[in-house]
Amino acid sequence: MSKVQFEDLLKAGVHFGHLKRKWNPHMAPYIFMEKNGIHIIDLQKTLVKMDESAAAMKQIAKSGRKVLFVATKKQAKQIVSDLVSAINMPYVTERWPGGMLTNFPTIRKAVKKMSSIDKLMKDPANWNNLSKREKLQITRQRAKLEKILGSIVDLTRLPAALFIVDVMKEKIAVREAQRLGIPVFAMVDTNSEPKGIDFVIPANDDASESIKLIVSEMCDAMAEGLNERKSEREKETSDKKDQKPKVRKSAAKKEAPVVDEDEVDLEDEDIEENDEDLDAEEDEDADVDIDENDDDLDPDEEDED
Q1: Number of structural domains found in the chain
Q2: Is residue 74 part of a domain?
Q3: Which of 59, 144, 268, 295 is 20 to 30 A from residue 30's alpha carbon, by CA?
């Protein structure tokens, strides 16, 4: 990730604030000076806040979660859509649909309806049975849904965070995020309210070059986090593949122990010798019993005589 320098911020006009009479007193810590009735933003603090925000967004991307980018201003629409779509993150550049976060299930139903219309249009049997007026109504509805919700089709659950270009213009989105406890990253100008914003980036939110510089920096940080996540997953899968053959070999060794033929022959010889010894002992015991019986019979025979 290329680190933004002080000169880059200066060239992009990030330091220009609003007129003094339009300022918000809560932005005083981020204002460097006043010149010709215009407040100048402290770019040193902007650099620090940008680094903090980039690190936090990198961790969110590394964990596999989504960040929703919101920029409905005319000069920010095209810039945000081009940069954010490159990293496959959701964004809103048209009108913010009220209740998009607080009433998320209803928004998901609208997205599913758009996908069902796509299936209908791809099915020639059902599509051709519709009248011309019905087709026109469906295509208009599809275009309207695509314009508002087309960029959040992949957002299947609430985002992990919001990145907002103008806090004043997107105040509804900020309130919904605050109500749900979703962290908010935002470009905050001198006329905006920084309270309630988790990651404040003091910057000019009206100049297109300023917006492009800061949004591209955030996108680069998220892209780096996604690449790290991908490399870690590949490493885990390779480790699992390496471990599986070792387990199989050890199991095979346990199931089939190796026995030497010499040991088997020696054991057979020992068994045969033991059998011979037992046979000899049994013969001796039998001879002893016969001799005792003969001795018992002799006295009886003498008495009969």
Answers
A1: 2
A2: yes
A3: 59
Of 69-78, 88-97, 173-182, 273-282, the least confident: 273-282
**Cβ atoms of 69 and 80 closer than 8 Å:** yes
Task: For residues 85 and 179, state if they share a domain.
Answer: yes
CATH code where residue 89 lies: 3.40.50.10490
Query: For residue range 15-37, what is the model confidence (pLDDT) as tens digits?
Result: 888 888 888 899 999 998 888 88
The Cα 28–Cα 51 span in angstroms is: 21
Domain range for residue 39?
6-101+158-234
Cα–Cα distance measured from residue 267 to residue 260, given in angstroms and rounded to the nearest whole number: 11
CA distances (Å), origin 269, targets 26, 259, 276, 282, 283: 99, 17, 11, 20, 22
Burial class (CB in 10 A: 0-12, 13-18, 19+), 75: middle
Q: Is 221 exposed, middle or buried (0-12, 13-18, 19+ CB in 10 A)?
A: buried
Q: Single out the residue of 61, 57, 39, 32 nearest to residue 214, CA to CA.
A: 57
pLDDT band at 209 (very low <50, low <70, confident <90, very high): very high
For residue 98, the model assigns a pLDDT of 86
For the cut 70, the answer to whether the pLDDT of residue 70 exceeds it is yes
Q: Which amino acid is at 56?
A: A
Compute the distance between CA of residue 188 and CA of residue 167 in angstroms, rounded to an integer.
6
* Position 70 in a domain: yes
Distance between CA atoms of residues 249 and 35, nearest Å: 77
Query: Residue 299: its pLDDT value, please?
Result: 44
Predicted confidence at residue 177, as pLDDT, reads 94
Residue 248's pLDDT band, with cuts at 50, 70 and 90, is: low
Same domain, 164 and 298: no
